[in-house]
Design a protein that fits this description.
Mean pLDDT: 92
Helix content: under 10%
Number of domains: 1
Number of helices: 1
Number of strands: 4
Oligomer: single chain
Strand content: over 45%
Radius of gyration: 13 Å
Low-confidence stretches: none
């Protein structure tokens, strides 16, 4: 089951980071360039401990977009792991 949660807090570090898309293979690349600027965008995923809006703390798979001059943008939870 795909679970997208947008309001959450990342607690600690993100581990097991992997690049899952780069440049034109990112579906929303036009929007990223329009909002944050042109550059080498990457979509990444990793595992992090998160605090959900109801206060629950759990481990989750987190996805985000990143460009070196802009940093990490638009975090989202894709899956609750525990």
């Amino acid at each position: 089951m795909l679970q997208m949660v947008k309001d959450f807090e990342i607690i600690g570090e993100i581990t097991d980071i992997e690049t899952i898309a780069v440049g034109s293979s990112i579906r929303v690349i036009r929007r990223l360039k329009r909002f944050y600027g042109d550059g080498r965008w990457r979509k990444l995923k990793g595992v992090a401990k998160v605090r959900l809006p109801d206060g629950t703390v759990c481990k989750a798979e987190v996805h985000w977009y990143e460009m070196s001059s802009v940093g990490r943008k638009e975090y989202k939870i894709k899956r609750i792991l525990s």
